[in-house]
Amino acid sequence: MRTRHALFPPFREDVQAQISAATPRSQDLCLPKPSTRLQYPSNTSAPLRPSKLSPSETPEPMLTFKRPTKNDLPTVYLRLHLASMTPPCSHGITAKAPRPKRADVKSTAAQLAATKRYRQANLLALREKARARVTRRREQAKGTELEVGLKASERLNHARSRERNKAELAHRQRTRRAQAYVAKHGWDAWVDHSDRLNLHAQKRTATAQRQLDEDLAEAEEEAEWAARRLKQAQGASGLSCSAIDAGAGDDDD
């Protein structure tokens, strides 16, 4: 059986001495020290300024860097935490306002006020965004035929919004009047009153329709009378032209 010395023969003493002589000792190595100052070799007596040393005697400094210790880790973690909490740069107008926190709401009134502020901020942001979009489109379409179309569409949208607002206002007013009437006179009285209102509305509608029919009939009569007058005028002008032609023919004869 092969022994360990047979597998791994020991080094000879002269080879071991050569290896030991070639291996540098730890005290001979220039290990970095935990300091940020410049380290000078040991052959200089004092760390003089480079301006007072000759170019041949100027030592070569070695830069050493301080590694973070356990005491420095909280500072690093705090910086990372602050960096993560820093909000990103917002380009333009944000359409959403900060939502009120539940911890800040102390009562129902405060909650309603916070919700109202949140909605108002949202509405203002959306209006500003829409105004900026319209301004940008106007700038892009300035001096072209598209500007006319944009203005027409804006006028149409404004008219539609006005009509919609009028209809909503009239509906709210009718609802408020109905609620007040029911609260004062009761539901049965409101039913009778609504029937009377519907009857009056039907009468007004019938009167308006009859007036419209009369106006249409008058307009048709006026159109027929204008057409007859135009035909008469055309006939008179045709007769005069034929008489002139006939007189010219007699002169030629």
Brief characterization of the structure:
The chain has helices at 4-7, 13-22, 73-85, 108-140, 146-185, 187-252. It has 253 residues and is mainly alpha-helical.
Can you give a write-up of this model?
66% of the residues lie in helices and 0% in strands. It starts with a helix and ends with a helix. α5 packs antiparallel against α6. Residues 89-95 have low confidence and may be disordered. The protein has helices spanning 4-7, 13-22, 73-85, 108-140, 146-185, 187-252. With 253 residues, it is mostly helical. Among the domains are: 103-140; 187-233. The chain contains 6 helices and no strands.
Shape field: elongated
Order of helices and strands: HHHHHH
Distance between the termini: 160 Å
The stretches of 5 or more residues where confidence is low (pLDDT under 50) are 89-95
- Based on helices, strands and strand pairing, what is the structural class? mainly alpha
Strand content: under 5%
- Continuous helix count: 6
The number of E-state strands comes to 0
